[in-house]
């Protein structure tokens, strides 16, 4: 018998007869760099071994690098780095892990119908373990959001490499979307600007004519990576230009620096720590520092900037030092991530 019901069927509502419950629900994975599991030398050593063994991070032949890594770096660095982590550690773990989880929770509240997960490129929870769990639960649509506003091969590309390795190991894959970067996205730039404006409402706007400075500090990369075509420095410049426009400042008002260098290679500069020493010696009356590349506070912002750079500036003769937080679970930061999440999830929710 032929049915007389000719009502059109919405193809979006159609599901295969063998579909599993998780098929209809997309997932969003918020990925950050990673963190040791504890502020102890053994945990730091394990983390650094995984991080510094990545060929995207250290572009040196393993035959040359591994003896240096195992024989020098992993013998010398874990203890002092662990002490630095202890100075910023929270009851719930490292700040980076704590705030990334909080961002995921808040995103989940803003994205009904989306399963939001946290993964770390190095350490736990690993990207592979999260993909395994989603796959086992029947999820087949996955959007990946790197918590890196500016693209670099040593951050976003190595994350994509990890996902590609998971895909190669599995026959039944995902419909997957990988966000690239968002150096001048409206909500992101607004989050940075609002943080500075609210800070200036509390302490007064900087007087550039009197010598006050606003420093924008990004994580550095080796010059060799930049010369090989890495787009990172250009994306940092886009962020600064967009931020100056949003704040109504003349181009060049913000001082751009790069931090977190190590080893003997030449890195993008000027280095933030060197700039702080020079500003201090010049008797700079005030410096405000913001770190647009870090979506969650971590060792590089809380210890390196707010402790070491503050000390360098003040001891050299500088005046007031202000680290201006903008990220973590602030409304602006979560809104910036939500904007990117909705782009990645478009058509799925």
Would you write up a description of this structure?
The structure is a single chain. This protein is 46% helix and 13% strand. The protein is of the alpha/beta class and 349 residues long. The protein has a four-stranded parallel beta sheet with strand order 2-1-3-4, sandwiched between helices. A four-stranded parallel beta sheet has the order 6-5-7-8, covered by helices on one side. Helix 11 links the parallel strand 7 (286-290) and strand 8. Helix 4 crosses helix 12 (331-345) and helix 7 packs across helix 9. The radius of gyration is 22 Å and the shape is globular. It starts with 26 loop residues before the first strand and ends with a helix.
Structure described in brief:
The protein has 349 residues and is α/β, with parallel strands linked by helices. The protein has helices at 41-52, 62-76, 78-86, 95-110, 127-136, 153-169, 186-203, 223-227, 232-247, 272-281, 299-315, 331-345; strands spanning 27-34, 115-122, 141-146, 175-178, 213-219, 255-259, 286-290, 320-323.
Overall average pLDDT: 93
Ends distance = 37 Å
Q: In percent, how helical is the residue content?
A: 40-55%
- What sequence of helices (H) and strands (E) makes up the elements? EHHHHEHEHEHEHHEHEHEH
Helix segment tally: 12
What can be said about the biggest beta sheet? 4 strands, parallel
Strand content: 5-15%
Overall geometry comes to globular
- Residue stretches low in confidence (pLDDT < 50, at least 5 long) are 1-22
Rg, nearest Å: 22 Å
Spatial order of the strands in the main sheet? Answer: 2-1-3-4
Would you count the extended β strands for me?
A: 8
| Alpha-beta content class | alpha/beta
Keywords: Cytoplasm, Heme biosynthesis, Iron, Lyase, Metal-binding, Porphyrin biosynthesis
Protein name: Coproporphyrin III ferrochelatase
Pfam families: Ferrochelatase
Function: Involved in coproporphyrin-dependent heme b biosynthesis. Catalyzes the insertion of ferrous iron into coproporphyrin III to form Fe-coproporphyrin III.
């Amino acid at each position: 018998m032929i049915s007389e019901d000719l009502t059109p069927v919405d193809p979006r509502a159609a599901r295969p007869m063998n579909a599993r419950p998780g098929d209809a629900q997309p997932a969003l994975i918020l990925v950050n760099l990673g963190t040791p599991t504890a502020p102890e030398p053994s945990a730091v050593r394990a983390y650094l071994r995984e991080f510094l063994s990545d060929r995207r991070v250290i572009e040196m032949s393993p035959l040359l690098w591994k003896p240096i890594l195992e024989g020098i770096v992993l013998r010398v660095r874990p203890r002092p780095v662990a002490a630095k982590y202890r100075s910023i550690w929270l009851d719930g773990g490292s700040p980076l892990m704590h705030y990334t989880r909080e961002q995921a929770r808040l995103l989940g509240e803003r994205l009904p119908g989306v399963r939001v997960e946290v993964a770390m490129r190095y350490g736990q929870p690993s990207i592979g373990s999260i993909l395994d769990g989603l796959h086992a639960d029947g999820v087949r649509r996955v959007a990946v959001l790197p918590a890196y506003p500016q693209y670099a091969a040593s951050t976003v590309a190595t994350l994509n490499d990890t996902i590609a390795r998971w895909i190669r190991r599995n026959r039944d894959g995902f419909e997957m979307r990988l966000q690239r970067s968002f150096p001048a996205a409206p909500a992101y730039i607004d989050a940075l600007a609002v943080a500075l404006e609210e800070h200036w409402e509390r302490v007064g706007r900087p007087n550039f004519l009197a010598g006050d400075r606003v420093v924008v500090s990004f994580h550095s990369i080796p010059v060799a990576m930049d010369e090989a075509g890495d787009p990172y420095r250009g994306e940092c410049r886009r962020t600064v230009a967009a931020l100056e426009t949003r704040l109504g400042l003349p181009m060049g008002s913000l001082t751009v620096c790069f931090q977190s260098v190590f080893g003997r290679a030449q890195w993008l500069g000027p280095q933030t720590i060197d700039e702080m020493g020079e500003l201090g010696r010049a008797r700079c009356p005030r410096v405000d520092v913001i770190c647009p590349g870090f979506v969650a506070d971590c060792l590089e912002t809380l210890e390196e900037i707010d402790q070491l750079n503050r000390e360098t500036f003040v001891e050299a003769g500088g005046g007031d030092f202000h680290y201006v937080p903008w990220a973590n679970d602030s409304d602006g930061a979560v809104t910036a991530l939500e904007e990117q999440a909705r782009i990645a999830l478009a058509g799925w929710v």
